[in-house]
# Entry
Amino acid sequence: MRIQHSVIIPAYNEANRIANTLESVSSYLKTGEGRATGWEVIVVCDGCRDTTAQVAGAFKGRLPLRVLAYRDNRGKGYAVRRGVAASVGGMVTFMDADGSTPMRELDRLSKPILDDQADIVIGSRHAENSNVALDQSVCRRILGRAFSLHTRLVLGLDLHDTQCGFKVFRGDIARALFAVLRSDGFAFDLELLAEARERRLRVQERGVEWSERPGSTVHPLHDGVRMLCAAWEIRARLRARRHIGHGYLPLLTVHSDPLCDGCQL
# Structure
């Protein structure tokens, strides 16, 4: 069966949360839009020191599931990149292991790609029609807004929310785009969207349902500072590339059929 859609779930020590997420994925694939097409689910265990791989592996009888695991913790960006490289779907989605954005949001986010109106659709907690359960601390919310403003100023990304962990891609776009990324950590979203803009890809932002899940491995101050620094590094790389004449080139030919076979770089 031809794989229509690949779902990538990066995970680091998510043994206590990933089962609920895979349950929701399993339920989705049994009903509605998920029932009609071929799927693959790829869980990438990013140097997990707990039983994440075993918990995820227990779903192999209920899901078209692969578990990729490696010894060293390399970062979320690296994990998503590994998963995308291993994917074969005509569309590719990556979602967080905590399931903070429910799988059912995929119906709305994939529609612009299926209608050939977008190459990438990103979920957003701050865009119109978002539905956010604000259990975050005041500190996290303030830092999030400050980070968003900084991103606009440094990278020129006119987006409300670059960091929401639910994004959908044309499959050929995803595999080609992730192949050129260098950021291994949480800043990979910034590099991803900056590269998409450089290559004039069609990016849409859509509000999603989102709720805070306890147990996050993101440290607002420590990881926030690292992402701020990464934004400047990404900007410097893009400017250097433009200077030598390799910027603003399309990544690949955009086909009218977003699920085409044999799309070429």
